[in-house]
Amino acid sequence: MLRSIATVSISGTLPEKLHAIAAAGYQGVEIFENDLLYYTGTPAEIRQLAADLGLKITLFQPFRDFEGASRAQFAANMARARRKFALMHELGCDTLLLCSNVQPDCSADSELQVADLRALATLAEEEGITIGYEALAWGTHVNRWQQAWERVRRVDSPALGLVLDSFHILARGDTLDGLPSVPVEKITFVQLADAPYMKMDLLEWSRHFRCFPGQGELPLEPFAEQVTRCGYRGPWSLEIFNDGFRASPNGATAKDGYRSLLWLEEQTRRRLPTCDADLFSPPPLPVYHGLEFIEFAASAAEAQRLGQHLQALGFQHEGSHRSKQVTLWRNGGARIVINHQPHSWADHFYQRHGVSLCAMALRVDRSAPIVARARALGYATWQGDAGPNETPIPAICAPDGSLIYLIEAGEGIYERDFHLRDGLTVREDYLGIDHLALGMEADSRDNWVMFFRTVFGFTLEHEQTLPDPYGLVRSLAVRSPQGDIRLALNISQSRATQIARSVACYQGAGLQHAAFACRDLPATCDQLADVARHALPIPANYYDDLLARFGGELDVGQLQRRQLLYDRDPQGGAFLHLYTRPFTAGRFFFELTERRAGYALYGAANAAVRLAAMQYC
Fold it and tell me: Structural domain boundaries of the chain?
């Protein structure tokens, strides 16, 4: 499968874009006309540069507002086409994208449209050019792929085919169910883009909010399956209009785009296991068994203070590392590691970010396949120095430089690596780590989404908008296929929200909070007397509102006495949770949770009161 991307998808000058695209691994590139117009050299120079970089120029685009124009305009359009064909010969490209006409005064007469397209196809055939006709979702008369195909079919020229663009098709709610009726040789080109679901004008949605496959919510997987099943074996090309991508370093963006194509190929291979297409087939995903532990980087003084903070939440000092200044804290199924080893990787992380989450560990059935997946997708892996009789633990580098450790089920790392305290009776207040919430720069979240989607196979949930007293926070959750690992990825465009201040404090992404799951949260609060001292104070007005909404269904007084928050989903599932005060200003805090009757959300209804309460701490 030839992997391609449009130059409009990334930032930079045209030569810079071509270098970034080639470095990311693509074999093809679409040249967007504006990139060429603003280039100070000649099309021939771009042709040579692309050849030197090993890139095939797969498409030149766009050619606009052609069919159904006035007769005076039609003559001008034909002259314009001749000039573009001459430019394409100099550029070394033989395929032109023709967008359906969006002018409000263009003719609705399909006979006239077909006649115009036939004239263009005849000229293109004489020039050795192939035209790919695309139905723009906001086209005046042609805005669905079936309409475009009907006109291509009626023209019946070898020089005119169909372009299938996933955004233009899926954003309108269309499918490719009718594609088997289209001869495969008439599919000229396939363009791919994802997007979050948004209720807004199609043109604005398309021009600003497209993203790479896997980063949005459009059904790209069945789209790719249907295109492949019909026999199409031409380029898969990304065409992404995204304000954030155009403002971000082009190297990282191009790499994420390439990974998105690999991810989509993998999903297609799963759907079509016997297909003859050359599709990316990495090692299979592991079975996940939850978050094994989280690790903080700290100084010696902060490690001591954090340990005292954890003790107040019921954690016990379970042991110390055999060869490093690392301590292990535990309560039931929740474990936390505090690393203050000088001159270590964690120390370097601390020097950059201060006391912070530097690693998390996933329990998996097998680690080697997921390490191989990460490498195949171009992510860095890491393995630290292990002392005698200690466990070498492989890890994958996350976008912020933190580590994702992979621990195989049944591996006794604690007994091997730590001096565990003799005779310790472990408390069993917590079932495990319920979820983590990470704060990050707005323009980096797509990198995180791509990381968790492609390497770990996590799924996306619908984004939530949370009101902070000083702006809005956008929260997007990812979770493992089994649902036992949950991460909330939070961003804010405002500079004054809690998330923005946290990102500034960390000088990058960092832990907002870690949540620990309880069987019975009210009972846990009663058993852990110090929790009340660290609990985030919730205003009485919140509980008055709970009483008004739920009346006698809830013992609101008991919730208020413990500073517990409450949420309920439409299916009747319930969520009780408590937040602690921040460990230190601008950094992380903790949450205790209890899920009832299958509740699978995160208490977003209570985010506003929590964010406001944090301002008063």
Answer: 3-271, 288-420, 430-615
Contact by Cβ (8 Å): 296, 325: no
The answer, yes or no, to whether residue 617 has pLDDT greater than 80, is no
Report the interhelical angle of 71-91 vs 110-127 (nearest 10°).
30
Q: Name the fold adopted by 430-615.
A: 2,3-Dihydroxybiphenyl 1,2-Dioxygenase; domain 1 (3.10.180)
In this chain, the answer to whether the domains covering 3-271 and 288-420 adopt an identical fold is no
Q: What are the two backbone dihedrals, phi and then psi, of residue 597, each rounded to the nearest 5 degrees?
A: 55, 40
Close Cβ partners of 3 (under 8 Å, ≥ 6 residues apart):
25, 26, 27, 28, 235, 236, 237, 258, 261
Which of the 8 DSSP states describes residue 367? S
Query: What per-residue confidence (pLDDT) applies to 411?
Result: 79
Other CB atoms within a 10 A radius of the CB of residue 595 amount to: 20
Determine the 3-state secondary structure of 593 from DSSP: strand
pLDDT of residue 363: 97
Q: Percent of the chain beyond pLDDT 90? A: 94
Q: Is 295 annotated as a binding residue?
A: no
The amino acid at 125: E
* pLDDT (mean) for 409-433: 93
pTM: 0.95
For residue 513, say whether it is annotated as part of any ligand binding site.
yes
Query: For every residue of 201-240, which 3-state class applies, written as one string?
Result: CHHHHHHHHCECCCCCCCCHHHHHHHHHHCCCCCCEEECC
Each residue's pLDDT tens digit, 228-273: 999 999 999 999 999 999 889 999 999 999 999 999 999 999 999 9
Is 191 one of the annotated binding-site residues?
yes
What number of residues does the chain have? 617
pLDDT at 409: 84
Does domain 288-420 correspond to CATH entry 3.10.180.10? yes
Please indicate if the annotation marks 67 as binding a ligand. no
Q: Give 311-347 pLDDT, tens digit per residue.
A: 999 999 999 999 999 999 999 999 999 999 999 999 9
Three-class secondary structure of residue 286 per DSSP = coil
- The DSSP bridge partners found for residue 404 are 360, 396
Residue 591, annotated as binding a ligand: yes
- The response to whether 165 counts as a known ligand-binding position is yes
| 462 labeled part of a ligand binding site | no
Which fold is adopted by the domain 3-271? TIM Barrel (3.20.20)
In 3D, which of 56, 51, 54, 1 has the Cα closest to residue 29? 56
